[in-house]
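User: I'm new to structure prediction. If I give you an amino acid sequence, what do you actually give back? Let's try with this one:
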Amino acid sequence: MSSKQPTIWDIAIKLNVSISTVSRALRNAPDINPDTKKAILDLAHQLDYQPNTIATSLRKNKTNIIGVMVPEFVHAFFPNVILGIQEAANEAGYKVMTMQSGESLDIEKHNLQAMISSRVDGLILAISRETDDYEHIKSAQRKGLPIVFFNRIVDELPGSKVMVDDYQGAYMAVEHLIQTGCRRIAHLAGPQNLTIGRNRLNGYLDALKAHQFPIDESLIMPCNFLEGKARIYTQQLLDRPDRPDALFAVNDPAAIEALICIQEHQLSIPDDISLIGFSNAPHSAFVTPPMTAVAQPIHAMGRLAAELLMRQISEGQRFSPETHVLQTNLIVRQSTRRLS
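Assistant: Good question. You get back a string of structure tokens that encode the predicted 3D arrangement of the chain. For your 340 residues, that looks like this:
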């Protein structure tokens, strides 16, 4: 049996009709004899005919495919954003092509070119932790590729952006620690080339300043989203004679690493040391003790990014870039002390 994909030529030859007649029947055009249309559709079904989407996209200059590139799939945050993107895209008749950069600038560049070559209609992008050169993104924008940035946005580049109020979320978390009696609060920080890393650090610093706490730079540890770094730096903090009594982590994975390290030292959370993460990924509620976290509207972020991109694709040059800042809230669980 031949594995060759049947074409409209095959249908036309078998039924002794023209290519244009087959094409009109498959498009459900009204200007065709009903019996001829039925014969064509029946044979197409019998042959398991599938339209050539590449050829169609070349004719229309539109694939109805959205590209999504994220730094990683390992932790729950980005997969949950993608679920929101897919939901909105499916409702609008778009398919989603998803790639990950593995936190590598080189892979990010390679994947971006692969998506352009695949003729995606637009891209939703969260940059890698290594990305400090934006020429590959600027080049894609110059070619007319619509891009929406989310979570890890790029201040230097134009385009729509969807983010949360990282500064306020961090400020709220540190203020909660202060209000529950913590006095030496360390920060497991993110990359400072990324807006979220800078904003969460600034929220931490300003909360301390607002409550007239001294800034101890040695309590700020640059974890930079690197696997295992939070555990190493937590170990260093716990080995100090003046160890902190609280940790605010830039994200939930760093907080979980810190939690494991603290428990290995047989210290009590929160009696000896309080702990707060950022994101409120599902596993935050299931660790022991359940972890206090700054909650982000993850699903809503994905939906909004997709809706913005599809509007940009539809409106073209009439579209004006938009920036949306979503609010966070603090989910208080058992990893922090009760308010006194």
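You can read the tokens as a compact description of the fold. Here is one thing that stands out. The chain has three domains: 1-48, 63-164+298-327, 166-296.
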